Amino acid sequence: MLSGPEAKVFGVTLLIACAAATLFMTGLGFLVHFVAYPLFSDVGQNEFVQYHAGWSTRITPVVFVPMSIELLTAAALVLKPPPGSTSAIAAIGLAMAGITWLSTAFLQVPAHSRLAAGFDATAHRKLVRSSWVRTLAWTGHSIVVCSMLASA
Question: Which of 22, 23, 40, 77 has its CA 20 to 30 A from that of 31?
C-alpha cells in the first residue's frame, strides 16, 4: 500500500487521468450533440444505413476508451482522493460518470439500434434530445475534476 509522498503522487496522477478523459468526453459530447447527431437527418435515405454503420464503427473506440478511463479513474478517486479532495466529492464525479454510461446503454444505444435499420425521425429526435443527459453529466463531471485539480 502506498503512503506518504507516493500516495499523494498516485492520487494526483489518477486525478489528471480522470480529468483528461472527462474533459475530452465533454468536448466530444458537445460536438456530437450540436454537430454530428443533428447532421444525421441530412444524410440521404439511400445512404443512411451505410453512413450510420460507418459512424458506429468509427466512433465506438473513440468513445469507449476515454469513457472507460473516466469511469475507472473516477472510481479509484473515491477510494483514494488526491490531496485537498474528499471521497464525497469524488463520489459526485463517479455518479456523473455512471450517468453517462447508463444514458448510453439505455437511451443512446437503443436509438442507434433503431437508426441502424434506416433513418427514423422519431429515433433521431430521441437520440438528439437524450444526448443532453450525457453532455450535461460530462459537464458536471468536468466541473468536479477541475475543482479537484484546483484543490490539489
Answer: 77
